[in-house]
Amino acid sequence: MNTAWFDVFYLAAAILFITGLKGLNSPRTARRGLFLAEAGMALAIIGTLLRHEIVQFQWILVGVTIGSAVGAAMAIFMPMTAMPQRIAISHSFGALAATLVGIAVYHEHAPHVDRIEMTALGFEVLLGSLTITGSLMAFGKLQELLPGTPVIYRFQNIVTLTLFALAVGMFIALIVDAGAVPVFYAMVGAGLLIGVLLVLPIGGADMPVVLALLNSYAGLAAAATGFAIGNTVLIVAGALDGTSGFFLSMMMSRAMNRSFANVLFGAVGAAKPQTQGGVETRTVTHYTPEDAAFILEQAQSVIIVPGYGMAVAQAQQAVAELATLLLRRGAQVRFAIHPVAGRMPGHMNVLLAEANVGYELLFEPDQINDDFQATDVALVVGANDVVNPAARTKQDSPLYGMPILNADQAHTVMVLKRSLRPGFAGEDNDLFYERQTMMVFGDAKATLIAINQLLKEQAHDEHASMASNGVASPNGVRHEPVADVPGTPPTTVRQRPA
Ligand code: NAP
Fold first, then answer.
1. Ligand 1 centroid vs 322 CA: distance in angstroms?
2. Alpha carbon of 307 to ligand 1 centroid (Å)
3. How far is Cα of residue 1 from the mean position of the Cα atoms in its chain?
């Protein structure tokens, strides 16, 4: 086949990748963006299969069959809550592929590898190998097979930086003399070790950033593979993946007030491990779904703060139904979405979109944080770290410095979770013990279904009572003064103006 045709396929694929990536800018266009990128990938594969260097297809078919079966099983059986781990392991597979291609090319051509080719190969295997183990470590931490908190030991920075310097030294030595085969494999080994050491001291609020960074490394390794084997579409796709992942990690670092150096170089500036204090007994206010429904019935303004627990409980439909019921009662309802809520970037947006919650109801911290103090109820659904005031005040906390949602400033804070256990960062949350906080223990979905049922019954009763009294109300809301419930924390339940 005329080689110009490969370029046509590759050019079309590159255009589709770029437009697909642009589509991911907004939840409205994200689905279309994904389809475009998928079409681009299909064209890139077809274009590559048409190349005359490919003389046999049987091994490719075996690979495609096994890969498709594994990919389909992962997509079908892995729950949404395990998506971050799935992404981490996919980065590891991508990096493994890039590293193996690099090793194969080196094995085939050494010692006759020119300096430019060796530079591309060096980048490919070094970035690839550290991404393999770094992503496996991230998978282990997210799957809770390894401690999720930072693992810190003495001279950690010195060890990591020395190893890094050694790997770079070997890389330079190979550019000078590509025939030094043992140095090549030692560099691969050093890369694998660096991946482990880089992710070991990262935990808590830095995990989302490190995931984006590993994505970037896998992309850059793929771009280097493209240079090494002379494949333009791999260069374009890898560069897009690499740079977008890098920008995403920088933006997330900035949004969360984390040190980017900390994430890039592991323990540099990592939070100190927490010291165990004496056991302290504190009390919390425990409410039932009935109490919660009573307070929500009266609220004029509600901000819902979803978190990882909403994903675990699969409570997004129940949350959406509650929002609809409250809106029907005439309350103002908004959602406050923290950039790292859940376990992957955009986790809450995806779930709420699945439940058809309108985008106009979703607000980022900067847009909504000042409004909490004038809000009747902050309803925290399975969120913990993203509303933990320790991020503001507790300097030895892994959360310290991360901007949080100001749920604690609302008149009443209602927290739906199963226990007082801490969230991902392992930090106790003082919000649960505040006077204005009511804990409604239980699975978030079950609690919300109970609350929704009570609100529906209440609305039905109000409707029936108005119909029997012949009273017309445009929105079916009864305006009654509300008495304080004895023994409960003070709640501000204002009457809506008639
Ligand atoms: P979180 O701090 O992990 O807390 C989630 C809470 O949900 C837990 O405290 C848990 O408490 C509760 N929960 C679990 N299952 C539940 C259920 N069935 N019903 C009700 N509650 C349930 O979550 P977050 O506030 O969303 O914060 C996210 C954390 O993950 C941050 O530390 C972030 O840095 C980290 N992280 C984020 C990403 C990302 O990209 N978004 C990636 C990796 C890590 P109980 O066990 O008591 O129910």
1. 21
2. 6
3. 44
The answer to whether residues 438 and 296 touch, using CB atoms and an 8 Å cutoff, is no
Matching residue, tokens 């280097």 = 224
- Domain ranges for the chain: 78-265, 282-497
Give kind and range of the element (H or E) at residue 434: none
Name the E strands within 276-425: 301-306, 332-336, 362-363, 377-381, 412-417
Q: What's the gap between Cα 379 and its chain centre?
A: 21
Euclidean distance between CA atoms 228 and 126, whole angstroms: 13
Q: How far apart are CA 106 and CA 119, in angstroms?
A: 11
CA nearest to 266, candidates 343, 339, 206: 206
Q: Closest ligand 1 atom to the C-alpha of 345?
A: 40
Atom of ligand 1 nearest to the CA of 340: 41
- Nearest-angstrom CA–CA distance, 406 and 363: 13
pLDDT digits (tens, 9 = 90+) for 22-74: 998 877 788 899 999 999 999 998 888 888 777 788 999 999 999 999 989 98
Count of alpha carbons within 13 Å of 301, Cβ hemisphere only?
Answer: 14
DSSP string, 258-297: --HHHHHSTTTTPPPPPPP---------B--HHHHHHHHH
Asked if 308 contacts 348 with a C-beta cutoff of 8 angstroms, the reply is no
Tell me which DSSP letter residue 470 carries.
T
Tell me the pTM. 0.72
* Strand-by-strand arrangement of the 377-381 sheet: 362-363, 332-336, 301-306, 377-381, 412-417, 437-441
Give the residues across from 412 on adjacent strands.
377
Atom of ligand 1 nearest to the CA of 423: 2
Q: Which helix (H) or strand (E) holds 103?
A: helix 83-109
Average pLDDT over residues 169-192: 95
CATH of domain 282-497: 3.40.50.1220
Q: What are the residue ranges of helices labelled H in 111-203?
A: 115-142, 156-176, 181-199
Do residues 416 and 461 make contact, with C-beta atoms less than 8 angstroms apart?
A: no
For ligand 1, the distance from its centroid to the CA atom of residue 311, given in whole angstroms, is 9
Residues assigned a catalytic role: 385
**pLDDT tens per residue across span 427-456:** 899 999 999 999 999 999 999 999 999 999
Ligand 1 neighbours (beta carbon < 6 A):
84, 204-205, 207-208, 307-309, 312-313, 340-345, 347, 382-386, 416-419, 421, 423-425, 443-444
